[in-house]
């Protein structure tokens, strides 16, 4: 504190940093009323000073020197919105050891190194808050860690990537193919120049690892998550899913089973009556099932300048209150268990499968016997259409062990009567 003002430093002034700057400015007077002290943005760390100068009223607060912030004892709260692993990791650890409190949106870092960051915060009795790291503006970390703490959480399912949800919505509603929908997402600024982390499911996997760790009180890291993206989904898959009363969504799925934690990110057919099925465009939602609360869903903007800043400034507020009440470090890591992560092969799923086969007698019988011989029970088998000498088949399985289904798939791929296996998508 300096002159009864809570001093905050911002690391990064990109999309989120600029949002934080704007919201802090907009909330300045309100905050004095709410907290009893002023929150002052004392320093902003960037690499490119010229670019940053255009965004702030007082350019003297911009610096490229981390030590200037670290060594300033009047700064109590550091907001890390640079992103990436290094130097963010080193800066956060150094700051915590110096007695500073941290607010961050850095899911990449938390999903890999959450344990050391939170342990260091605890050792130093400092706050480490990261509401913005999952689903941007939607309050989900704090509800899971606090409001729902009385529950054993059985399942967390989320649409936690706005770019892919936008793409899938456009494919469904405007019958676009993946590449065209991605192009539109890029033109509208949803997808980044390199969209790999979004479309390959990596961004969602980081978020679901963080959610699973909190929900099940056991550390789950990015490396534990089974990941499939949406690049193989076609407009035809979505059309057929809709004919069956389903939507296709990229879901992060985490379940707490007796045998261990199941954690994955992949596209799924989901019944159109499920609340997640109507989450469209770039919106995010997280659906939770707890043993006391039952079902609960959190919905809103999962990214963007102001929604993300909303979560960050909320965290700054909480830290400031804790500093005033002299109780920082109160909410720390809740991973007091060490549960195993289940192998994907051992879990049970339902599958939708689309394939092209020779259009002649006996083919259906051969396909079903491969499934039957591998313990895969079929719920629906539909011949969709004929095209020349080929027939298009759609199969929906009952709940089956993933390794049984994969064994069938391996055999089907070797059969000359099967010309193409066009899609394999799990069903929620
Ligand atoms: P961004 O637009 O790329 O901004 C990053 C900022 O950090 C830039 O101002 C950059 O400065 C600065 N920076 C990067 N490395 C630095 C370094 N080594 N030293 C000093 N400054 C450095 O990123 P963003 O979209 O705001 O995202 C920031 C964080 O929020 C990430 O962890 C991201 O995952 C997370 N997040 C973002 C969103 C979203 O909607 N964008 C939503 C939720 C969470 P220069 O420009 O000078 O290089
Ligand atoms: N790229 C992410 C999304 C936003 O599309 O949801 C940042 O987490």
Task: Write up this protein.
- This protein is an alpha/beta fold and 428 residues long.
- 37% of the residues lie in helices and 28% in strands.
- It has helices at 15-26, 28-35, 49-53, 66-70, 88-97, 107-123, 141-147, 162-174, 178-187, 196-199, 202-216, 235-243, 305-324, 363-373, 402-414; strands at 5-11, 38-45, 62-63, 75-80, 101-104, 128-129, 153-159, 226-227, 246-257, 260-271, 283-290, 294-301, 348-358, 378-387, 390-397, 400-401, 418-427.
- Strand 4, helix 5 (88-97) and strand 5 form a beta-alpha-beta unit.
- It is elongated and about 85 Å long.
- It starts with a strand and ends with a strand.
- The structure holds NADP nicotinamide-adenine-dinucleotide phosphate and L-homoserine.
- Residues 12-17, 45-48, 51, 81-83, 87, 105-107, 132, 136, 303-304, 308 line the site of NADP nicotinamide-adenine-dinucleotide phosphate.
Write the layout of secondary structure elements.
Blueprint: E1 5-11, H1 15-26, H2 28-35, E2 38-45, H3 49-53, E3 62-63, H4 66-70, E4 75-80, H5 88-97, E5 101-104, H6 107-123, E6 128-129, H7 141-147, E7 153-159, H8 162-174, H9 178-187, H10 196-199, H11 202-216, E8 226-227, H12 235-243, E9 246-257, E10 260-271, E11 283-290, E12 294-301, H13 305-324, E13 348-358, H14 363-373, E14 378-387, E15 390-397, E16 400-401, H15 402-414, E17 418-427
Parallel strand pairs: 1-2, 1-4, 2-3, 4-5, 5-6, 8-10, 10-17
Antiparallel strand pairs: 7-9, 7-11, 9-10, 11-12, 13-15, 13-16, 13-17, 14-15
Helix pairs in contact: 1-13, 5-6, 6-11, 8-9, 14-15
NADP nicotinamide-adenine-dinucleotide phosphate binds near residues 83, 132, 303 and 304.
